[in-house]
Amino acid sequence: MDRFEVTGLHSLSSTIELRRDTAGNLMIVFFGALAVFIVAAMWFGTFSKQETMRGLVLGTKGGQRITVPIGGTVKKVWIEQGQAVTTGQKLLTVIPQQTASGASPLSETDLQALIDQKANTEQQIASIKTLMARDTQDMQSFDANVEALTNNLRSQERELERSVAAQRDIVQRMQRYLKVGYTTRDSVTAQERAWQDYAQQLAAARLQLAQLSGTSLERLRAVQQNNNYSANQLADMGRLISELTAKIERAKSAISTDIVAVTDGKVAAINVREGAEVAVGDTVAAIGDPDAPFIIGLQAPSKSMGLLTIGQRVVLKYDAFPYKTFGVKYGRVIAISAQPVTLPKEDEQSMAMVNPALAQSAQSAPPQSKFLVEVEPEDKTISAYGVDRPILIGSTLSADVIVERRRLIDWVLDPILAMRGRT
Question: How far is Cα of residue 54 from the mean position of the Cα atoms in its chain?
Fold first, then answer.
């Protein structure tokens, strides 16, 4: 009895120990494999951060999107889809928000007053320039007359100098003749009188030359003073014209602003209609060749520019073809602008500097510059319900661009290494 019990207990104990060792080994293998999997995933796995950007389909032949510089209401649309336009042609007329409520008559009155004042100032400028030209012409005529008269007097002076010298020789010879009795005193006196007449005429000629030179200098000085005074007047009136021109442009903008074409081409897209409200920077039209190849122009914020590379693949989602229905398309980055196309507004910059908490909050991100990123799409059409639909120039879209890709282990260790570098 006792032997049976001992034997049974020994067998049971061996069974329990065997099961316990097997379970422990399985747990060690499981956690070891899990650790290896985690390390491998951290080492080979990657973490990607993408940025969604808005963009526009641009033509490669003179393609250009048209934006509005002011916010307001579209008063008139002067173009149609597909119409050929030239540089400077009027496309739209926008009424600013501050005058859309009926304050335009006063602005038109002010504008007319400014235009009249500018016209009067321009007439005064023209009159002053005419007077200066007349004074210059008179001075040239006066100089020509003075030069002719001076030459005549110089010629007379030379003739009189010769006459005086010759008469002096005669007087000296007559005086020698008088001493030896070959002539009379009256003859000598007559020759001396002639010598004095020639000398007086020479002095008179030289006096006229001096007076003529003084008169010419005084006239030249007077004309120069008048020209300097007129030049100062022209400078003042030129500044006044510049101020009036700026005021006129502001007055015109207060009434309406014309949006003009900046390049030749065809109207590829019109995004607004008469009576629509627009904000500053809104794209209202696009100009290009509808049959030409196109590219995608993306507005990339400055925070995403550091890791963008040429050849990088991006995901394109056209607004005209919702991606949930028609899928997404792809393209590759072909150009990245070195200069921003738009800068943050001054009020936004000052607000972010004054209130850093507002700049760092999720509701109001700090203002950023926008850079142009050009993308070449892989497909020029989209299949919609069995039909290949063309992508029109001027169409808008969104693009998902990967701006950061790191290994998971780097993503975990980089903050620790950065903290060590700061200590």
Answer: 23
What is the mean pLDDT, run by run of 10 residues, along the chain of 423 residues?
Answer: 47 50 74 76 64 81 73 87 85 74 55 86 90 85 85 88 88 85 84 88 88 84 86 89 84 76 80 84 76 81 82 91 90 87 57 44 62 89 87 83 67 62 53
Tokens 């030459």 label which residue? 151
Written as one letter, the residue type at 29 is V
* Ramachandran sector of residue 267 (left: φ over 0; alpha: ψ -120 to 50; beta: rest): beta
Q: What amino acid is encoded at 225 in this protein?
A: Q
- Six-digit token pair at 29? 């293998």
The letter for the amino acid at 214 is G
DSSP secondary structure code for residue 302 in this structure? G
With contact defined as beta carbons under 8 Å apart, do 298 and 372 qualify? yes
pTM, full prediction? 0.42
Both tokens assigned to 341: 């196309």
3 state DSSP class of 345: coil
Amino acid at 42: M
Q: How many distinct helices (H) and strands (E) make up the chain?
A: 7, 16
Contact assessment for residue 52 and residue 75, using Cβ atoms and an 8 Å cutoff:
no
Distance CA 376, CA 413 (A): 36
Angle CA(348)–CA(349)–CA(350) in degrees, nearest 5? 95
- Cα–Cα–Cα angle for 173, 179, 180, nearest 5°? 95
Distance CA(250)–CA(115), nearest Å, equals: 12
